[in-house]
């Protein structure tokens, strides 16, 4: 039976009244904190005596995969304007009605996404004048949602154990669509966010299966700094055009990104030194690198040391990927590539580009906030949502360039070819976006 047939009973439950997203506005003590935050932003830059005062708040909240989205209707009192310049909008002193939308992220600061104020009774408020309400979705969206979910199940060949589970996944899918829409609205690049093969996972599941929140806190080996590049960076470079990059691989439900990042780098270094492109073994690192934590996470700097101590890497074919830790079966006579040392690279993106063009693909780690729902284009997440201090995913930079005026890094990921642009992520270059420059390193083959 096609998985989406399980949805038929759910479809009827989404018809009028049944979906729980059309909750009426309510007064609720949990709305106080986001309302105070919205007022704080609203009053920013004013003298304390000229600040507007919150009078009442109603609203609703939507629990999303990455936090809570509040839609608030606030009545506030604007003090008389003296001096008039102390008021944000001198014409609107007295009682105002405002609509605020506050996003409360688990790991980031609160963000005011929308602010619209007017005199009571005025018709310009977007949510009450027939515009699309940002939340909740309309009745028509529910049918559209089911269609999207069916497409998702077909595209990624997904199925669930039973109807209850299918319904639960549909709920998560809906929340994720909303989150992707918010990311889309806030993106400063050209990226498209939306349905991906991870659209049915909660934020917690996604983090647990695919990311390494510990990545930046693990004790790592201190690497010596690399000598700087000899010349300036060319305008663009891509190691895929020079045969130094293997096919995109798939780490599966295992936090082994660090191993993929490092084998990708060693594959490039070996190719540039010896002229042969070998697909090298991540499973060897998952099983045998005792400095790291297999599917529980690791650090590239540790993995280089492990490769040196073990005596090299076997090929993917000889020591193939299983996606969970097994007994170490590495044998030194099967090693087909070795490294002699490793280096830490510059935090300056221009210098990184120059080093990359001269020396090969670079292992990096970044904040993967923009990646769960990334589809294509140059991603440039709203900075407060993609903090450079929250590094949780290791990947491989293989090139850089400009796309319609947007400078980008071309980043090889390890989530299969059915994610992103054929497995690649394009991230804005030159603004330390998502901490892209925070942990760059490379193996050295003498
Ligand atoms: C789809 O998934 C089913 C069960 O999960 C599996 O048996 C089948 O081979 C998959 N088909 C494709 C095309 O991946
Ligand atoms: C449905 O599947 C979920 C996930 O596999 C399982 O936890 C749950 O017990 C199942 N429910 C029923 C009624 O079989
Ligand atoms: C690099 O490492 C390999 C393997 O461990 C070793 O055979 C080779 O001599 C080393 N090269 C240098 C220059 O030390």
TrEMBL record:
PROSITE patterns cross-referenced by the UniProt entry: THIOL_PROTEASE_CYS (PS00139), THIOL_PROTEASE_HIS (PS00639)
Limits of the Cathepsin propeptide inhibitor domain: 149-206
Keyword Protease: yes
Reported function: Thiol protease which is believed to participate in intracellular degradation and turnover of proteins. Has also been implicated in tumor invasion and metastasis.
Family membership noted in the UniProt record: Belongs to the peptidase C1 family.
Domain Peptidase C1A papain C-terminal: 233-444
GO molecular function per UniProt: cysteine-type endopeptidase activity; cysteine-type endopeptidase inhibitor activity
Region (Disordered): 120-140
Gene Ontology biological process terms from the UniProt entry: immune system process; proteolysis
Entry annotated with the keyword Hydrolase: yes
Pfam family membership, one: Inhibitor_I29
Gene responsible for this protein: CTSF
Record lineage: Eukaryota, Metazoa, Chordata, Craniata, Vertebrata
Keyword annotations of the record: Disulfide bond, Glycoprotein, Hydrolase, Lysosome, Protease, Signal, Thiol protease, Zymogen
Listed name of the protein: Cathepsin F
CDD domains: CY (cd00042), Peptidase_C1A (cd02248)
InterPro entries: Cystatin_dom, Cystatin_sf, Papain-like_cys_pep_sf, Pept_cys_AS, Pept_his_AS, Peptidase_C1A, Peptidase_C1A_C, Peptidase_C1A_papain-like
UniProt organism field: Phascolarctos cinereus
Signal peptide: 1-20
């Amino acid at each position: 039976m096609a998985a989406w047939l399980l949805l038929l009973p759910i479809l009827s439950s989404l018809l009028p009244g049944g979906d729980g997203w059309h909750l009426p506005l309510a007064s609720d003590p949990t709305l106080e904190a986001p309302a105070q935050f919205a007022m704080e932003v609203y009053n920013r830059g004013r003298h304390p005596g000229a600040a507007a005062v919150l009078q009442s708040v109603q609203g609703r909240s939507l629990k999303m995969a990455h936090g809570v989205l509040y839609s608030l209707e606030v009545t506030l009192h604007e003090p008389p304007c003296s001096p008039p310049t102390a008021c944000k909008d001198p014409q609107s002193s007295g009682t105002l009605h405002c609509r605020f939308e506050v996003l409360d992220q688990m790991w980031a600061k609160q963000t005011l996404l929308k602010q619209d104020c007017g005199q009571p009774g005025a018709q310009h408020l977007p949510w009450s004048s027939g515009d699309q309400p940002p939340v909740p979705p309309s009745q028509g969206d529910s049918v559209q949602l089911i269609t999207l979910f069916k497409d998702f199940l077909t595209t990624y060949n997904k199925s669930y154990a039973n109807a209850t589970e299918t319904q639960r996944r549909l709920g998560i899918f809906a929340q994720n669509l909303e989150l992707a829409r918010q990311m889309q609205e806030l993106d400063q690049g050209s990226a498209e966010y939306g349905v991906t093969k991870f659209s049915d996972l909660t934020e917690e599941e996604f983090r647990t299966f695919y990311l390494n929140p510990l990545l930046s806190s693990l004790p790592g080996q201190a690497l010596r700094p690399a000598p700087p590049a000899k010349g300036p960076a060319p305008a663009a470079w891509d190691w895929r055009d020079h045969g130094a990059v293997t096919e995109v691989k798939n780490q599966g439900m295992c936090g082994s990104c660090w191993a993929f990042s490092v084998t990708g780098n060693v594959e490039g270094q070996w190719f540039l030194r010896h002229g042969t492109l070998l697909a090298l073994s991540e499973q060897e690192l998952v099983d045998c690198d005792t400095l790291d934590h297999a599917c529980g996470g690791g650090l590239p700097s540790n993995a280089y040391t492990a490769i040196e101590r073990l005596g090299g890497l076997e090929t993917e074919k000889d020591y193939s990927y299983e996606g969970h830790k097994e007994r170490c079966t590495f044998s030194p006579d099967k090693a087909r590539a070795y490294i002699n040392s490793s280096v830490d690279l510059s935090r300056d993106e221009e210098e990184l580009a120059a080093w990359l063009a001269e020396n090969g693909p670079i292992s990096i780690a970044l904040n993967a906030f923009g990646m769960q729902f990334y589809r294509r284009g140059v991603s440039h997440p709203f900075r407060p949502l993609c903090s450079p201090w929250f590094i949780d995913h290791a990947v491989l930079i293989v090139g850089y360039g400009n796309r319609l005026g947007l400078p980008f890094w071309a980043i090889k990921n390890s989530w299969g070819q059915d994610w992103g642009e054929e497995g690649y992520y394009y991230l804005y270059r030159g603004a330390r976006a998502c901490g892209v420059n925070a942990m760059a390193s490379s193996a050295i083959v003498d």
